[in-house]
Amino acid sequence: MVAETASALRGMGVDPAGLVVACRRIVERHPTSGPLWWLCAHMLTSGDPFGTARRLADEIDDDQTAEQLIDALPADATVCVVGWPDLAGEALLRRGDLAVLALDTDDQGASFVRRLDRADVDAEVIDAGGIAGAVLAADLVIVEALAASSTELIAARGSRAAASVAYCSEVPVWAVVGVGRCLPEAGFTSLVQRVADVRVPWLAEADVVPLGLCSHIAGTAGVGLVGDVALTPECPLAHELL
Questions:
Q1: Domain spanning 65-228: which CATH class is it, in words?
Q2: Average pLDDT over the chain, rounded to an integer
Q3: What is the per-residue burial (b if ≥16 Cβ within 10 Å, else e) of 50-76?
Q4: How far, in Å, CA of 147 to CA of 209, rounded?
Q5: Hey, is 224 helix, strand or coil?
Q6: Are 36 and 26 within 8 A, CB to CB?
Q7: CA distance 55 to 224
Q8: What pLDDT does residue 14 have?
Q9: Interatomic CA distance for residues 37 and 31, integer angstroms
Q10: Distance (Å, whole) CA 74 – CA 6
């Protein structure tokens, strides 16, 4: 999505005012995408926005997070994931020796399991009522960040419940934070306000997960303990997007 958006914005050749409007519409239509906020923030604060867009698209393509996961995941483990995670999903598909329990909280888990089945990966779809049982049966839980701050993640619905059960049961929780996910605090807060309706929190588009529920952080530099890895903003604050 980042590469396509960067290409579309470059093709438009809009003036600075038009670029602001376009970027605001992008983040409003995709409120759970940290990488799109990251892309737009960089473009709006750059002297060469379209050259910056090209460079950032390349950075997303070169994200090594999935490669790091492939090397770090324990052999023959049972892994619990929520929905169809992008980076973690790629790693699970390519490893092949892992058993996957996919929590189907947003109607994506079943599709992910079918994809895993076609790759001969042992996988089972778990409905929302089975979150606790799936977590207790797993060797580790993966929560993939749609966006992140230094202390919290925005992740697929069901992620906070899975991470909470795992934390209380001493099951390791790996937070996967790929390139472009970590935003300035104000930017992250603006996304939270868009996706987490405090009046009806159970209808929120995504979960806000405290990083304290996680044991490890997996990123492009590898996998490390939460206390040893600092999440820092990967883009400047673009006030036009708030």
A1: alpha beta
A2: 94
A3: bebbeebbebbeebebbebbbeebeee
A4: 10
A5: strand
A6: yes
A7: 27
A8: 65
A9: 8
A10: 36
